[in-house]
Amino acid sequence: MERLTRRLALARQALETLLELTILKAPNRIERDAAIQRFEYTVEACWKAAQAVLDTRFGVVVASPKPVVRACAQNGLLTEADGHAAMAMIDDHNLTSHTYNENLAAAIHGRLATHAGLMERWLEALENSAKVE
Fold first, then answer.
1. pLDDT, tens digit (0-9, with 9 covering 90-100), for 103-113
2. Is the pTM here over 0.85, yes or no?
């Protein structure tokens, strides 16, 4: 249970750091790149928190992001629409190592607020599931 609580707290903390930068209307390149980096580690923290909830609360063991997303959708932790959006978010996460490409960096940055909203809903569902005894 301690592992689950820690994973959820880390995901919440990571999301808060991302939200600090998603409110910038016209970020410079450094701010944009920092926001993308925060997105990258927030996705990591969220899917790992989801992995811990799935294991602890549902007895589902999955080892990578997309299977975690699918299992969350199957277990009511993501709606069908959010499940599809989460798959696209994972794809963006996988592209973050290519942000030297200005067009790609701008495109990913343009989706960060939407991704952050999705992770907020996902994290709330995970936290609520973790509270159930």
1. 999 999 999 99
2. yes
